[in-house]
Structure formats: C-alpha cells, structure tokens
Amino acid sequence: MHLDLSFLKELGINDNNSGVYNGNWLKSQNAPEIEVTTPINGKTIASVYQATLDEYESVITEAQKAFKLWRNIPAPKRGEIVRLIGNELRKYKSLLGKLVTLEMGKILPEGEGEVQEMIDIADFAVGLSRQLYGLTIASEREKHRMYEQWHPLGTVAVITAFNFPVAVWSWNALIAAVCGDVIIWKPSSETPLTAIAVQNIVDKVVKEQGLPGGIFNLIIGPGSTVGQRMLEDRRIPLVSFTGSIPMGKLVAEHVGRRLGKTILELGGNNAIIITGNANLDMALRAVLFSAVGTTGQRCTTTRRLIIHESIYDIFLERLINAYKQVTIGNPLENGTLMGPLVKKSAVEDMMHALEELKKAGGRILYGGELLEGEEYQSGCYVTPCIAEAKIEYDIVRHETFAPILYVMKYTDLDQALAIQNDVPQGLSSSIFSTSMLEVEQFLGPDGSDCGIANVNIGTSGAEIGGAFGGEKDTGGGRESGSDAWKAYMRRQTVTINWGSSLPLAQGIKFGD
Ligand code: UN1
Description:
This protein folds into 2 domains: 6-266 and 475-492, 3-Layer(aba) Sandwich (Aldehyde Dehydrogenase, Chain A, domain 1); 270-468, Aldehyde Dehydrogenase, Chain A, domain 2 (3-Layer(aba) Sandwich). Helix content is 35%, strand content 21%. The protein contains 13 helices and 24 strands. The strands form 6 sheets. The protein has a 7-stranded mixed beta sheet, with helices on both faces. The structure holds 2-aminohexanedioic acid.
C-alpha cells in the first residue's frame, strides 16, 4: 500500500528531525534515534533524534528563564497567546489530523476530531484566563480581610500517551499556560512526529509575539534517562502523566518521594449497563462507537457490557450483526470505521488476553482474529471481538488496550452495579435506561464509582468542558475543563489587617 507523505513538509516534518525544543531545535551529535513507522503499512515515515541528559538540562534552564517572565504577564494576555495558538490549530486541523492518523492509526474523522478537541480547549482556556477566581472569606477578626489568590506554579511536565497524541497535551499545556506555568512536553515515543508538528505551530505564534521559546518546550527521549530525570527533578513541581497503571504507580512513587504534585490519568475498564428499559437502537450505536472506535485504544473505551437478562440474546444478536458491518482497513480512506492497532506488540497483547479468557472459561462470540493479506501487511489489523465472560476472570479486571468487549448478563440493578464497580479502575461508566429510578440509582452515592458517569451515551467521547479523570487505579487526577485548572496553580490564603490593633484568631490573649 503506497502512502503519499508529501503533506509532512507543510507541518515542518523532515526525514530526520530533532526531538528537543527549548526555543530552538537542538540536536546533539550522539543522540539515539527513533525510526517512526506507520501502523497503516508498517513503513518508515521519518526519524527523530532523542534528547540526551545534557539537552534536558538546557531545556529546563530555558523553561525556568521563561517562567520568570511569563508568570508576570497578566493572565488575560497569556490567554491572548493561547487564542492565537487556537487560530493556528484551526488552519492546520486537517493536516495535523492526517498526521495523527498516519502515525498512530486512528481513522481520519477521529484524527481531525482530536485536533478539534485542541481547538475547543484553547477557546476554553482563553475564557478561563479571565476567570482564575479566588474566594473572599469572612474573617473572625475586626478590620481583617481574608481572601484566596492563585499564582503560577512553575514548570509543568506533561507526559502523554500515543492514543491521544496531541489532545491530551492541549488539555494540560493550554490550561497550564494561561495559569502562568511553562511546559515541558514528553510525548510517547510512538508518536513523536505529531508532537514536533504541534511544537512548530506553537513556535510560530510564540516567536511572532516576541516571547521566549522556553514557555512551551518539547523533549522526546527515553523514559529510562530523560523521563526518570524529570520525575526526580525538584525544579518540576507538577507532573501530569497519561499512560498505564504500572507506569503511573512509578510516576507517583518518584514524584511523591520529593513531595511533588501529580495528575494521573491511568487505565480505564469502562462498562455500559444496558437495562431492560433501554432504547436499544441508541444503545447499539453507542456501544459500537465506544467499543470499536479508535480500535479500542481509548482509556474511555467500553470494555465491558452488562446486559439485562430480558434483552440479552436479542441485543447481542444485533450487536454481532453490527460488528460484522465494521469496515476495517486504511484509516486514511473514507468509510473505514476501524484502523490498525498502534503496533504489532499491541496485537500480541490482544491475542494473549483472548487466550487467557479462553483458559478461564470465556467464549468468543465474534472476531478477535489477525487479518492477513496485502492490505494488512503491517500486521496490526484485527477484527473487533465480542466475548462472553465473568467478572471473576482475572483478564476481565485488566485493561487490554485493544477492541475486546466482554459481555455479561445481570438480573437486578444492584447486581449490575456491583459488577460495574468490581474492577480496580474507575474512569468512565454508562447506563442505558429510560427509567428515572434506574438512572438515579446509577448516579447515587452507591451507584457508579467512576469519575465519569453517563446516561444514554457511551463511555467515550467526553467533552472538554468537564473535568476529565477517574478514581481508584485510574489515578484520581482531573484535567481539562471545570475547575481542573486549580491543579496547575498554587493557592495562597491572604489575611490583611487594616486596623490598628492586633487581635489574635480564636480569641487568644497573649501578653496583653
Ligand atoms: C484518552 O483515551 O486518554 O473521552 C483520552 C474521550 C476523549 C479522551 C480520551 N475525549 O474518549
């Protein structure tokens, strides 16, 4: 399969690229290289020089220098820079979306949707830049005023995953930027080119506005050297990490040891409960998008379906029929619904999970095969899988980043909720029901234990306006909308005495 790569030039991507930016693109002599391949046909697209530890030092030095200036620029003026970045992203939406598709394999409408998510969060951040409000608090002392103010935190490390290679950066970086922080982005080594393209877009705006390049920095490098150094670096007060639960635990340990702050967006194991009162047409479409979309590689992907016994057989029959219609192939082509998995080892993980499932007693109802032939030469294309399983199986409690949907039957809603909550992860959840009583039970304190609870929509596809994140092993962090910005700032409680005496709090008399 031949792919036209000429559009890469328009995004500033060359055959060989530097992977380190601190206001200028750096390239040391002995930097290790990454060969970037596309899962579409398995061929090389370009290569990237990774950062050395010396280059890491020069990135952090520039970031710290830029912070001294950036933190004193009024927040609405910082918002203006983010507005200009949003405008540039609008111009590059289709090219950048195409690069996302090329580099990690999600279908073009999803690649472009991801850039739209960046544009949306830019707009949100611009508005936010005039709303970084603190509270005024009633003081118990006469002629005293108390209030809270929020100050920039410093250098924020943003470590992102391959599956949302640009949107997750924007949720963090554009919010952090209006908050007055500077950013060091460490993208996934699977998707360095989209990061370089975004950095080029940002660079243009920052330079045109006469600002220092060190506000938005990029460092592509091995986790074992550069990544480790970032986690241990006391000059980085906040690390925002998106990735697997085991890696997230390591991040929490290293950053926690120096009492740094973290935002962790780790794995999901999201379920949809389909009740006997559900609108099955809507449920069917939602399950299809949430389970098959992005080839099952969203942290919000639906991995478990908990179906009421009264509609179990009929719903599954319809779902299997719908799965048979899913067009699998080149994600750049119109009409494809499911592209490849990101790499061959992801296919191995999927096959391994299905073996485990079978050993435990589970039954594959549809799919789960590797596709072969010229069109699928990268070895990354699979058929999406529906499998009957029990919540007790070890593999069902584990997040496999692939399109496997485990289905289970339930009798009453208490049981469905127990199944839904009985996994280590707590990101997203949904119920399909037209019964107000069922919906309210799902949303109640003993209902879904996840950070996201949806009614009559699927588990994936969250809007940027809400705080995004989850509980339990998902890590507890929140990014994107609502008041998630507070994690990127430091809170200061201020008390001002404008009287001429010195009353003490709690009415304490001390030496008077
Ligand atoms: C992720 O998979 O890491 O809710 C993020 C969604 C997207 C974000 C997913 N807006 O599916």
